[in-house]
Amino acid sequence: xxxxxxxxxxxxxSPSRNLVNHMLAVEAIxxxxxxxxxxxxxxxxxxxxxxxxxxxxTKDKPNLHGIVGSEQLHLMGVPEDICYAVRVHNALHGLxxxxxxxKALYAADPLSGLIVACALIRPDKKLDGVDTDFVMLxxxxxxxAAGANRDQIxxxxxxxxxxxxxxxxxxxxxxxxxxxxxx
Length: 183
What we know:
By secondary structure, the chain is mainly α. About 60% of the residues lie in helices and about 0% in strands.
């Protein structure tokens, strides 16, 4: 399946535009990370795009989130390394993050939420005025965007990135699609 076909499936299966925007944001971050590491940006982007494809079915069953999606993607013919990254992005499974793509998806997922929260507290509710220093200030406030798991974001260190550089890559990547995600 190509990106457009998978995007259509993501939209069809998502209960809200916010969830679609989240997956687009993670796709953008994954593409930015792939470029940074000289990896396959299309493949890494797809992993980000489809990582929550099963959310509507598993939102009340977190122990199944990622497993169901991985199985669905496998049946669609999505490459196995993407299926595995989708499976391991949920820490509840306790599976090892083996590849750089696995590590990137695990850390990028909550980063997108933190960055969105930073944009939403601005008067214009846009990413344009958000910079890395601002996100880092909010990162240190544990009660701000409490759902953005800080330990999971800090797992960027498994890729050899410090959190400041990771946030910078994520923010720059999301700004590139800000109009598409309404920020």
